[in-house]
Amino acid sequence: MSLLLIVQSNRSIRLFCIATSFLLFFVFNVRSHPYASGLTNSGGTIRFILNENAADVSIIYGEAAVTNDLGPLNRGVNSFGLTYQSVTWSNFSIVVSGSAGGAPSQISVDATNNSIFGPRGVAVNRNPKTRNFGRIYICNANAGTPPAADAPLQFTGRGIYILNADTTDCLGRGTNASLRGIVLGSSATYSPYKSFVGPDDSVYIGDSSGGGVSGSPGGGSVWKTDPDVSTATPVFQYGLGVTNFGPCQSTPFVTGSLGSSDLTVYCLMWGYPQGAIYNNVYKYNIGVGPLPTSIIPVVPGANALLSAADVTAPTLAKGDIAVSQFEIPLPAIGAFFKQARAAGATTILNPAPALEFAGEMLDLVDILILNETELGFLTKRELRDTDDPARFVEAAQSLRTGKDKTICVTLGKRGVLALIDGRPLIVPGRAVKAVDTTGAGDCFVGAVAAQLAGGKSIGDALGYANAAASICVQRMGAAPSMPTAEEVEAILSTGRPGERRDP
Question: Which of 249, 250, 253, 281 is nearest to 265 (CA)?
Answer without folding.
Answer: 253
